[in-house]
């Protein structure tokens, strides 16, 4: 064999994926013993299991998913289904991190299944179910009567929703208490003397739109403040649309002196519109906004913020799906995050 061929063979060998046979050779054990050790089989001694698993990590061994599927009917895949045109990047990265953190020490892998505005949100779910591409599914942008949740329930597919439904059906979810967020935001604004308040809502049709609107309205009645309607845009509109509509609103004689915003990116547009109208944040108007990272105060220190932890949401959703796959009762796999206090950095 010439040297060039030897180099090619060595290069191919270096890129070969480690297998059970590789582990067996390196540990001096049989393939069957190695396989059982990786699965924590009780008949294999603890020291043997530890040694095999340590070597597996060191050489980057991963089970062949096609082989696993043939043997067990499972894919070892959790799919996170996202609308790529609607989800904010900080949400995506944080929720992926949270899911990945939980499944890191399990056989499961995360795939992101995207869909766009032009698609029916049910399309990617049908694809995953009909092709058997995932053992569990996580969805967001949950609707009160969500056809995706109903479809998966009817077919016995393990799933969890980021947000609740209102279908009278029990399924795993993790949610942020948007009713409590909106109510606390109104109370805070009223406490610093703001009496005419506007709400930039989540999009109509999603469950947390109703939660947010109800919390806002109930707290207005509680503190005796009034609403300045701002229903021509939602946080799903473009930054420029929100900015323009905010500026128009703030040029009116009956303009609001306080805003509640349901998303950080939309808040940036609201502030731009306020300033386009020649008004000053913190003097003429105050804004309470949700945020998922400590960035808004770098933009304007006068902003009032409430933190929503999407990394925690990802972790809880992953635990819920894994729990359902493992046979836990759906009702035991539901969780809720409560908003913290409104944080001000006026300096």
TrEMBL record:
Residues annotated as domain HTH lacI-type: 18-72
Swiss-Prot/TrEMBL keywords: DNA-binding, Transcription, Transcription regulation
SMART domains (alphabetical): HTH_LACI
SUPFAM superfamilies: lambda repressor-like DNA-binding domains, Periplasmic binding protein-like I
GO MF annotations in UniProt: DNA-binding transcription factor activity; transcription cis-regulatory region binding
Source domain of life: Bacteria
Transmembrane segments: none
Keyword Cell wall biogenesis/degradation listed: no
Annotated protein name in UniProt: LacI family transcriptional regulator
């Amino acid at each position: 064999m010439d040297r060039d061929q030897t180099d090619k063979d060595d290069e191919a060998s270096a890129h070969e994926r480690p297998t059970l046979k590789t582990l067996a050779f390196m540990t001096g054990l049989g393939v069957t013993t190695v396989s059982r050790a990786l699965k924590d089989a009780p008949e294999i001694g603890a020291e043997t299991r530890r040694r095999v698993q340590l070597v597996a990590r060191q050489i980057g061994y991963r089970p062949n998913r096609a082989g696993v599927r043939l043997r067990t009917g499972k894919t070892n895949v959790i799919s996170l289904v996202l609308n790529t045109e609607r989800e904010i990047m900080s949400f995506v990265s944080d929720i992926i991190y949270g899911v990945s953190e939980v499944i890191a020490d399990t056989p499961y892998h995360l795939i992101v299944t995207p869909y766009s505005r032009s698609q029916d949100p049910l399309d990617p779910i049908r694809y995953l179910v009909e092709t058997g591409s995932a053992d569990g599914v996580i969805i967001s942008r949950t609707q009160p009567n969500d056809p995706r949740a109903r479809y998966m329930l009817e077919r016995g597919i393990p799933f969890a929703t980021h947000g609740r439904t209102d279908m009278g059906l029990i399924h795993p979810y993790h949610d942020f208490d948007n009713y409590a967020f909106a109510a606390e935001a109104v109370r805070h604004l009223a406490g610093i003397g703001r009496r005419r308040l506007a709400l930039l809502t989540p999009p109509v049709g999603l469950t947390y739109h109703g939660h947010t609107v109800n919390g806002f309205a109930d707290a207005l009645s509680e503190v005796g403040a009034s609403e300045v309607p701002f229903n021509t845009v939602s946080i799903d509109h473009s930054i420029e649309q929100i900015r323009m509509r905010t500026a128009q609103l703030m040029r009116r004689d009956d303009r609001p002196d306080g805003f509640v915003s349901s998303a950080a990116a939309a808040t940036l547009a609201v502030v731009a519109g306020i300033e386009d109208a020649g008004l000053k944040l913190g003097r003429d108007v105050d804004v309470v906004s949700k945020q998922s990272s400590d960035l808004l105060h770098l933009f304007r220190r006068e902003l009032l913020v409430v933190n929503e932890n999407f990394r925690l949401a990802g972790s809880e959703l992953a635990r819920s799906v894994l729990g359902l796959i493992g046979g836990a009762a759906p009702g035991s796999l539901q969780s809720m995050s409560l908003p913290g206090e409104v944080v001000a950095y006026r300096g």
